[in-house]
Write a structure and sequence with these properties.
Layout: E1 2-4, E2 9-11, H1 17-26, E3 31-36, H2 50-58, E4 60-68, H3 73-81, E5 85-88, E6 99-102, H4 113-118, H5 136-148, H6 155-167
Helix pairs in contact: 1-2, 2-3
Length: 168
Amino acid sequence: GLVETEQFQAQLYLGDARETIQQVQQGNFQADAIFLDPFSPPNCPQLWTLEFIQHLAQCCSYTGRLATYSCAAAVRIALITAGFTIGSTIEVGNRQPGTVASFSEADLPSLSIREQEHLQTRAAVPYRDPNLSDSASDILHRRRLEQQNSLLEATSHWKKRWLREQRE
């Protein structure tokens, strides 16, 4: 259904988001705000892939923002690869900070050095779904293989290094 007021317009699409995003994109829709809120990347990798995020980016206006609760390095790298500049959201309670993305750097809170270094580890290998149709298990398997063959620092080494530096 369609909801429209003077200040707001929304269209509800039902179905696999990987298919409906293509319909939205074909309609040349440009969002002012996108909130990406699927289940976590390990549980729903289909909606965190580089390819899906590239489609989201094409549906986001130049001045628009994308926000998500995720601070996963793979998600952040996918956002950067799709053309976004990223920043951290404020931590709420004991939760990790989320991510906000925009095509311009204006008013984006910067990433900490620790967060920047996280993007240089194997955790940053993005999820991939070239045809936006693979199963979750295929996407996860593809990523594991890519991580095993990656020359990036092992994420466990990065974590140990940060813990050691915090203690010193």
